[in-house]
Write a structure and sequence with these properties.
heterodimer; A: mainly alpha; about 75% helix; B: mainly alpha; 434 Repressor (Amino-terminal Domain)
């Protein structure tokens, strides 16, 4: 459970809207590519559009840190994000070396975002273990 | 940082939630400060001091004072 500060509520609303926007861009792009409906240069636009709401997620995280008035809760969230960054970079580096030596296959780049969110969960557990709370 | 926040709060019969509302922070923040798991920023420390009408050093124990006593 997370402390529901006003900034956290705004952050969640932004995440919901960005997720809806992601679906609105992704589904037509998948359909269009599958049925070869998108011509020439527009394919680049259709491919990049679903990525923009994901970029928006990171901007929303930054806005949240700026807007959060509760300094303790903000510290907890920053710690989670630092864990997420370390976790994601570590996984990407290890995978990169495994890939370099031909032991694993190539991974799609968007897995980075999924790893990031998993890393935040790791950070929440770390907060719980070291500070006795994950902000709930 | 060691502090007397819990004592001062108890003197007024305030719950952690009541104190948190007066300070405009979360209950978790009050709990973390009371248990010494989190040191508040200077602005928040001043808000606490002003709320209890005490100087900051009467609420928060300076780490250097504490270590010199130990010596």
């Amino acid at each position: 459970m997370v402390v529901r500060t006003p900034a956290w509520k705004r952050y969640n609303w932004r995440i919901i809207w960005l997720s809806l926007l992601y679906c609105a861009f992704l589904l037509p792009a998948v359909y269009g590519f599958k049925h070869h409906l998108i011509p020439g240069g527009l394919r680049y636009v259709a491919a990049v559009l679903p990525a923009l709401p994901i970029v928006g997620l990171f901007i929303a995280m930054g806005r949240y840190l700026v807007e959060e008035q509760d300094e303790y809760v903000r510290m907890l969230r920053v710690r989670e994000m630092l864990w997420a960054m370390g976790f994601t970079l570590s996984c990407a580096t290890i995978w990169g070396f495994l890939d370099g030596f031909g032991l694993v296959g190539r991974a799609d780049g968007y897995w980075i975002v999924i790893l990031w969110y998993f890393g935040q969960a790791v950070g929440a557990i770390a907060n719980r273990l070291t500070l006795g709370t994950s902000g709930g | 940082m060691e502090n007397r926040l819990r004592l001062l709060r108890a003197e007024r019969n305030w719950s952690q939630q009541a104190l948190a509302e007066r300070l405009e922070v979360s209950r978790q923040s009050v709990n973390a400060i009371e248990t010494g798991k989190y040191d508040p920023s200077l602005p928040l420390a001043f808000r606490i001091a002003e709320l209890f009408e005490r100087p900051i050093e009467e609420i928060f124990v300076s780490p250097s004072t504490r270590s010199s006593k130990a010596i």
